[in-house]
Amino acid sequence: MKLLVVGASYRTAPVATLEQLAVGPADLTRTLDHLLAQPYVSEAVLVSTCNRVEVYAAVSGFHGGLGDICAVLAEQAGTLPASLANHLYVHYDAAAVDHVFRVAAGLDSMVVGEAQILGQLRDAYHWASGADSAGRLLHELMQQALRVGKRAHAETGIDRAGQSVVSAALDLAAGHLDGALAGRPALVVGAGAMGALGVATLSRLGAGPLTVTNRGADRAVRLAESYGASAAPMAGLTDVLSTVDIVVAATAATEPVLTREVVTRALADRDPDRGPLVLLDLAVPRDVEAGVAGLPGVEVIDIDRMAAVLAGGPAAAEAAAVERIVTAEVESFLTWLRGADVAPTVAALRGRAEDVVATELRRLAQRRPDLSDDQRAEVARTVHRVVQRLLHQPTVRVRQLAAEPGGDQYAALLRELFDLQVPQTSPVDTVPDVVDTDPTPYPGGER
After folding, report:
1. 0.70 cut: is pTM over it?
2. How far is CA 430 from the centre of its chain?
3. What is 2-159's CATH topology?
4. What pLDDT, in 10s, does the model give residues 17-40?
C-alpha cells in the first residue's frame, strides 16, 4: 500500500475553484465513503479549509489511485477531471509524507507558521476515524504529522511568523505616517484569522479608533467587541475609508474589495492634509485593485513588498529550523514505514516454516510410532531450533535492508522465492478511540 496526496491550495487554484472543491461537514462522510468505494483507494483523510482541499490516501497503485481521487474531486466540483488538472498537485510516497509534515508544521500555509492548520488536520483525522476511513497507514501518518506540528511550534518560534507578516507591513506603514501608528485611525477589512491578527496588532501599537468591517456582519461585531473597536457595514466602506489613515485588508474575496472607484470616492471626501492613505493588502487573491496604487495620496503595501522585508528575517530563520525538523522526521517515518512493510512478509515466511515443521513431525509420528513422547518432543525442539537459526540472520538482515531506500524490493524478493501469500492490511485496522495522542510507533525525533 502506497501513500498519495492529491490537492489544490491557494498556491495552485483561484478561490472560486477552491470553493467548488470545498467539502462541508454535512458532506464529509459521504465524500469519504465515495473515496473508499473507488477500486484503488483503501484509506482516506480529507482536509478542506478556506485555503486548501487535500485528500490523503492509501492506494494500491499510483495511476489508478490518482484517477480515482481526481474523479471524486471533479464530481465534488461539478466539473470534469481535465478541467482541474492545472490546479491540482500530486505527491507520492516520500514526497507525500514530506508534504503532510510541512503542512502540519505551518510551512505550507499562506501565513508561515500559523497554528490553525494543526487544529484543522486534527479535525480531519477525527472525522476520518469516525467514518472508518483512516486505517493503519493513515493512522500512523496523521498521528506523526500532528506530533511534528507540535514539535515545530514547541522547539522554534515558527508560530511568530504570522505576526511577523502583519508587523512587517505595519512597520512599512509607519514609515509613511511620521514613523508611528499610535493615535492613527485604522480600518480592518475582514474578520478571519489574519483580520483578527491585524486588529490585535493595531490595538497593541496604540492605533485608534479602530473599525472592523466584514461581509459577514456578525463576525465583524464579535471581533470589534473583543478589542473595544467598532463595527461598520461593508456597504459603508467608502465612508469609513475617508476617515482613517491606515487600512489592513485581509479577506477571502475572489475579487478586489478596495477598487479604484471605491478608493477614489473616499479620497474625494478625505482631508488631504491628513497625509497618505496607507493600504496594507494581506490577501491572496489581492483585496486592493491594481490601479489603486497609482492614485495620488495612496500608498499600497502588498505581499510582494513585504517579501523583501521578511526574507532573511526571524520568520525565515525559524522556517529554516522547522525545515530541518521536518526533514529528519520524514526520514524517520520512512525508515519505520519500510520496516513495517516487510514485517508481514517476515511473518509469512516464519509461518511457512512452522507449517513445514508441523507437517514433517506428523509424518515422523506416523512412520515411527515406537518413539516415546519425550523422544518426539526432543526431535520437535531440535527441528524448531534448526529452523529458527536458519531464519534468524536472513530475517534480521531483510529488516535492515528494508529500512533503506528501495528496501521494498527485498520483501518482494522473499515473497517470490518462497511463494508467500501476504494478506493485505484491513483499511480500518487499529484506529484508536482517541486520535490526538503522543504515540511513538517509530524512532522519530524528540516529542
Report:
1. no
2. 22
3. Beta Polymerase; domain 2 (3.30.460)
4. 887 898 888 899 999 999 999 999
Q: What is the pLDDT of residues 285-297, one digit of tens each?
A: 789 998 999 999 9
**Per-position DSSP letters for 346-370, written without gaps between them:** HHHHHHHHHHHHHHHHHHHHHH-TT
Alpha carbon distance 61, 94 (integer Å): 15
Residue type, 139: H
CB 316 within 8 A of CB 309: no
| Domain ranges across the chain | 2-159, 161-311, 333-417
Q: Is 70 annotated in the active site?
A: no
**How far apart, in whole angstroms, are the C-alpha atoms of residue 271 and residue 243?**
8
What pLDDT, on the 0 to 100 scale, is given for residue 362? 92
Cross-strand bridge partners of residue 186: 210, 246
Q: Which CATH architecture has domain 161-311?
A: 3-Layer(aba) Sandwich (3.40)
Q: Is 211 exposed, middle or buried (0-12, 13-18, 19+ CB in 10 A)?
A: buried
197 three-state secondary structure: helix
User: Amino acid identity, residue 166?
Assistant: V
Burial of 133-172, coded b for 16+ CB within 10 Å and e otherwise, reads: bbbbbbbbbbbbbbbbbbbbbeebbbbebbbbbbbbbbbb
Query: CA–CA distance from 139 to each of 122, 129, 272, 374, 426 (Å)?
Result: 11, 8, 60, 48, 12
Chain centroid to CA 93: how far? 15
* Under 8 Å between Cβ of 310 and 316: yes
What are the pLDDT digits (tens) for 336-384?
Answer: 777 776 778 888 888 888 889 999 999 999 999 999 999 989 999 999 9
Please tell me the least confidently modeled range out of 167-171, 308-312, 365-369.
308-312
CB burial string 219-250: b at 16+ within 10 A, e below: bbbebbeebebebbeeeebbebbbbbbbbbbb
Catalytic residue among 27, 29, 50, 305: 50
